[in-house]
Amino acid sequence: MSFFRTEDLVVRYGRAPEPAVNRVTMSVPRGSLYAVLGPNGSGKSTLMRALLGGLEAEGGHSWIGDRDVGEWTRREIALEVGVVSQSESIAFPMTVRELVSMGRYPHLGPLRAEGEADRNAIRKALRWCDATELERRGVTTLSGGEFQRVRIARALAQEPAALALDEPTASLDIRHEMTIFALLRQSASDGMTVLLTTHNLNLASRFADRILLLDQGKVAAEGKAQEVLTAEILERVYRWPVAVQPDPETGAPQVIPRVGIR
Ligand code: ADP
Ligand code: MG
Questions:
Q1: Cβ atoms of 103 and 82 closer than 8 Å
Q2: Of 117, 136, 198, 252, which is most buried with the most CB atoms under 10 A?
Q3: Among candidate residues 154, 202, 186, 209, the one with its CA nearest the CA of residue 3
Q4: CA distance 85 to 87
Q5: Regarding beta strands 210-215 and 218-223, do their DSSP bridges make them parallel or antiparallel, or are they unpaired?
Q6: Which atom of ligand 1 is nearest to the CA of 40?
Q7: pLDDT for 140-162, tens place per residue?
Q8: Nearest CA to ligand 1 atom 1
Q9: Measured between alpha carbons, how far is 129 from 229 in angstroms, rounded to an integer?
Q10: Of all protein residues, whose CA lies closest to atom 23 belonging to ligand 1?
Q11: Distance 41 CA to ligand 2 centre (A)
Q12: pTM over 0.90
């Protein structure tokens, strides 16, 4: 059973000559970690936004669970899916604690105040993202990576059935990037559905159950890391020479960019 699914999905911005997402068929099994890869502008964010009902499709279909995306209300999606978009600007100043507690909003009725379960979820999410020490800081004072960790914590505090994260570790150092990937891997193994986009081919290779590789809006390859991350496919899509070797520890294919001849 898939959690997110698309069939021949086409998304076009305005009158652009080519669609940004071009007949993409994908299926994200429940309880799996699914990585969407692809060069800049290949349609990763567009696919993610369309999957969550944020962009209208020109063609094809997408489903969340067993219902067409269009049949879900925003609140229903917010209860089920924790979203970390690629970027976000803060409209008004608030503390880290306040931002992360916003993850609980879909669970709170109009009159219900934060309870023990809410406080626990917030505390755990902050701890998982190594953001407990940042709790009292103003969000506008954080570094890029700190802010990113806090945004991931907000999505986790929601305790959703699924997570959709657009380049969640883009500005994180090696320790925090590994912490987040390990956390997402564990969450998926515990039954959460995790869909993410990333430029980190090697961590996608090590942690993802399946990989979708996009190229100019189209599916260039889909499958297990061994099937998708081959030198031939990657050189064609990224137009850069690479070597691919199995990681000695895990056997996962690891991509080493070679010195290009320009
Ligand atoms: P990725 O996330 O893979 O880098 P995007 O999905 O953001 O790629 O973009 C896919 C294509 O759609 C790119 O050519 C990009 O320039 C274009 N695009 C993205 N957002 C918009 C927009 N709001 N209006 C017009 N074109 C857009
Ligand atoms: Mg993007």
A1: yes
A2: 198
A3: 209
A4: 6
A5: antiparallel
A6: 4
A7: 999 999 999 999 999 999 999 99
A8: 41
A9: 29
A10: 13
A11: 7
A12: yes
